[in-house]
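Entry 14. Structure prediction run on the chain below.
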Amino acid sequence: MTSSNGLRANQEIGTTVLVVMMEVDEADDAVFNKWYNEEHLPERMSIPGYVSARRFMLDPEDGQANGVMRYLCIWELGNDSPLQSQFYKDQNAKPTPTKEAANGVIKQRARGLYRQIFPASGGYNDRIGYTYPDGSRIGA
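Output returned:
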């Protein structure tokens, strides 16, 4: 399904997620977001095995008291093999001026590769509710 702006409106689910957090000064947001949205996302999504990507920015009211960074990207992967692929290695070997500018303003980054443990595939969507040991129920 495609939305009116040409972007896909549905989200596919992979069995592996790559979680990337980055910290950038607000003054450098334009440089960073231009690279991420216009170059990095399309570049990575062209690699077989990348399923989808979603970007987030920390809610300013939440602050950074929890030790998290302001930007978050969640990449859905079929498995971890895209990160070992020649496509991935070739992209990393070709820095562009936009990428170099963005990397120059990233103050901190953290990255983790997570493999799905439950359910075996897809997303948990059981809507039958929950019955507590005392017999009370929540949900359907």
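Residues 29-45 form the longest helix (17 residues).
Filed with the rest of this week's runs.
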